[in-house]
Protein 1
Amino acid sequence: MSKKALVTGITGQDGAYLAQFLLDKGYEVHGLARRSSSSDVNLSRLEWLGIEKRVRIVDGNLLDLSALIRTVQDIQPDEVYNLAAQSFVHSSWQQPILTGQVTGLGVTNVLEAVRIAKPDARFYQASSSEMYGRIREPMQTELTPFYPRSPYAVAKLYGHWLTVNYRESFGIHASSGILFNHESPLRGIEFVTRKVTDAVARIKLGLQSELRLGNIDAKRDWGHSKDYVRAMWMMLQQDVPDDYVIATGRTSTVRTMCEIAFEHAGLELDKHLVIDPNLFRPAEVDVLLGDPAKAKAAFGWEATISLEEMIREMVDADLQRLKNKAR
Ligand code: NDP
Ligand code: GDR
């Protein structure tokens, strides 16, 4: 009998790659997704990967506990991956309450559904390097103190500790992955890497002339979503649940990431870059650099795709998308 997984946030970047990964492993994959007025459910990322017909979509929302309980009751999943969130840090200052409800309290809803309807299911929580915020140690590990710097990061910290608490209180096999930034051609357009690769493609094709950015001195430890969803699954295969940092161990500025993208398209960054003060954040996370040693020692995980390879893949995908649209 194939294993069953329930993935919240299946329509997002990681949800799509995780679904593909689990299907390849022979899982029956169920995905929680919400409807909108413009589309039944946004299946575009699953379609991009060609797996939309192989995933079983369940109508639901992280805010609706009764629907979550029924979903877990009906599916009886072996593994539950909680990826759904209001995940854009910048928006979390505009929508702090919604962010708290979905990204924070939503975790309680999913954990309650597991506790009530399938307490022996293994649970994964999508925690974030944003929880470190104002960094006081050069490299962040599972033991580095947290200092969240946005409503999003505060909400993620709540979800992280709740996951630890449900493990300790109820013996649930609950693990929290503290994932550093990870990107791909399926990254949302509002995040800086994809904003840049999309702009580079548009500039190359003569559709746009400038790229407006905020703080280009911020440093991030960027990996590829494909590598990171593998780590989520590996965590849940361990006998004992635990928390793990997933990162590449290399940090780069936003400027460096931009240079890789522009160079790949044969363009000069400084001819097109405009710094826009409106894009700076009320409080910034200046630098993130993760140490994935614990995950490597426990289950042999390491990143395989470099920043350069990933950004070039994203530029090529955006060029292709725009060319297809123009046809
Ligand atoms: P995305 O923003 O691409 O996906 C978020 C998903 O959550 C979407 O499927 C979205 O659905 C869904 N969602 C949002 N609100 C609700 C709700 N109320 N009920 C049900 N579903 C909802 O994020 P990523 O794939 O990049 O990230 C996955 C998770 O990992 C998130 O929790 C994120 O915070 C976390 N994370 C991400 C990192 C990264 O660098 N990518 C790093 C560390 C953590 P819809 O399509 O309808 O909007
Ligand atoms: P982040 O990702 O906030 O780290 O959260 P994002 O790509 O939005 O920002 C990275 C850095 O780039 C700077 N920046 C800009 N960012 C955006 N989006 N747009 C701009 O124009 C711009 N100019 C400069 C930002 O200030 C920041 O320093 C992501 C999300 O996926 C979270 O859900 C996840 O938890 C963390 O990564 C780890």
Protein 2
Amino acid sequence: PQSKLPDVGTTIFTVIGQLSAEHNALNLSQGAPNFSCQPALIDAVAQAMRAGHNQYAPMSGLAALRHALAAKVEAIYGCHYDADSEVTVIASASEGIYSAISALVHPGDEVIYFEPAFDSYSPIVRLQGATPVPIGLSLEDFSIDWDEVASAINSRTRMIIINSPHNPTGAILQQQDIDRLTALTRNSDIIILSDEVYEHVVFDGHRHESMARHAELAERSVIVSSFGKTYHVTGWRVGYCLAPQALMEEIRKVHQFMVFAADTPMQVAFAEALADPQSYLGLADFYQHKRDLLVTALQGSRFELLPSYGSFFMLARFSHFSPLSDDEFVLSLIRDHQVATIPLSAFYHHNQPTGLIRLSFAKDDETLYEGARRLSGV
Ligand code: GLN
């Protein structure tokens, strides 16, 4: 068949995961915990299954979970979403991102996003017959050049995809970014797709700039978040989407035919888990400890670490001691030092070498110590 995505291969996370397993490498690559969730969460799922919650959930999600989410979002970000028409439970943030782009982007539209970027955005845009417009983040501090965004916007611009805390760099949006984004989209019909899956993983007392904190932006935003990241269960594939009713109606038209509904017993369990705000508010300290542990353990290594303000990730520079490309360097780390990381180049559409690798600190402390030991031997 003629490929719709001829230049797309298997995702980097799968490729590195396989290589890592072949070489018996320690895995600091995927942003997925290697430790378990709260046992009570598993008990709650088992309980829900035994109680008979094993058939389709409502297409938009269990009412109890949608109401718990609306209450949570209003409490922490101050934005009111109607639980029935503006909150949808999705079968992973990935599904929500796909459904939102597919529902809202038309052939011929342009979609602005920022590179390095999570690897799904651009292919999804192209599958709609639309044009991805990547804008490079500063290689110094991964900030957004809003003047460049301003000059990229034209009458075909339908959507801007933002992601804070940012995978893969750990950068976060600041108030000045919010101000520029607000001014640039005012009086336009541009939709903001805000990937906020690391919303609770923000460090050093910074606050997460959710679109739901900013009324003018919230009116044009689709927010996507993830239970997998927040509750250490990335394999459960449940997330949620928030959007004004007119946008949500369109997103649900796609969601209903892609997956119909997300897993039922997990939704029962998450509705219960949300009753304890500490279940998400404690996450920043939990991951800050892991980031700090890795930074400390890598002191004295040859890597230059870039600051991470949020997410599960931190970038490390190697270009001052190795002439290899990102891909070659990552391969050599796996083969010669048995430690797996992700080449930053994988997050660029031209796969351009950056001299940087991405480390995931969503790992138990022992793995982080051992990973740092192996990296220190480079
Ligand atoms: N979001 C995670 C990461 O960036 C995992 C993505 C995936 O495996 N599809 O590592």
Protein 3
Amino acid sequence: MGLGDPLTPERGGAEPLRIGVLASQGDFAAHTTMLRSLGADPVQVRTAEELRDLDGLVIPGGESTTIAKAIEHDGLESAIRAHASSGRPILGTCAGMIICDREHLGLVDATARRNAFGRQVASFELELEVGGLGPDPMRAVFIRAPWIEDHGAEVEVLASVDGHPVVVRQGRIVLCAFHPELTDDSRLHALLMALATSSRDRSASDGQPATSNEP
Ligand code: GLN
């Protein structure tokens, strides 16, 4: 997929990208700040109505069982599915990775393993090279993080730790096991915005929704 330069998401003169941050629970405020610093118009979303017509969506870290219950309780599942099936991008981080897996929303053909690094290893940081984001490694903050235990052929692995995928992508959905919002490295958010721009451009040029994200 041609993305231009994923590290410079700004679109001169165009309407800012409206990027939703699911704000049911967890670490949504820092994502909002990071997206705003990149020139997006971030929207904290808690209702199905607020999920409509977004250019992109972040599903943040937190507690995946709590977020899954909130999605069910607040009737958000079909709105998130509609967002994904219209080809609009999603960045799922940590618990957000789990929410998108086969055992939850099934938006990505992958199974995440919760607390995969062990509950004792509550938190650690390392420098991680992420495919497509340039040669400089990212400072990756892992907090009771999952990894991808198993995935289908459509899923591209962008980074691994000890052989376990921790950043993956399928179409315009990017899942990351760590917390990119807790550092000042905004490249994954910039990637989400570049994917949102490509989705918006496609819809504008052919009048049709961009290619579906459905597996
Ligand atoms: N361990 C959490 C879960 O399984 C995820 C942790 C996080 O998002 N930082 O839901």
